[in-house]
Amino acid sequence: MTEKSTMLTGYGQYVFAVSLNATKTAIKKAIQEIYNVKPIKIRIIRHQGKKVRTGKNTSGYLKAWKKALVVVPKDAKIDVYEN
């Protein structure tokens, strides 16, 4: 949880790290099953893997990952810290 994602919870928006193969439909079903909340909107952000240095002459890669920004109705809340 970053400061930005914590701030977004006040606006009914929650950020989740999801599988690279996850679709909006699959994410919506998972949110409904786990938290019993029907999302209004889902946005997906895909982060590319990066080449990083781990020393003077050695390098490696950070894996690619995907995050989903889920918008829920105003009267609904997701308690992220309990689950």
Automatic annotation (TrEMBL):
Keywords: Ribonucleoprotein, Ribosomal protein. Coiled coil: none annotated. GO terms for biological process: translation. GO terms for molecular function: structural constituent of ribosome. It holds the Pfam family Ribosomal_L23. GO terms for cellular component: ribonucleoprotein complex; ribosome. The keyword Translocase does not apply. Belongs to the universal ribosomal protein uL23 family. This is 50S ribosomal protein L23. It comes from Candidatus Kuenenbacteria bacterium RIFCSPLOWO2_12_FULL_42_13. The lineage of its organism: Bacteria, Candidatus Kueneniibacteriota.
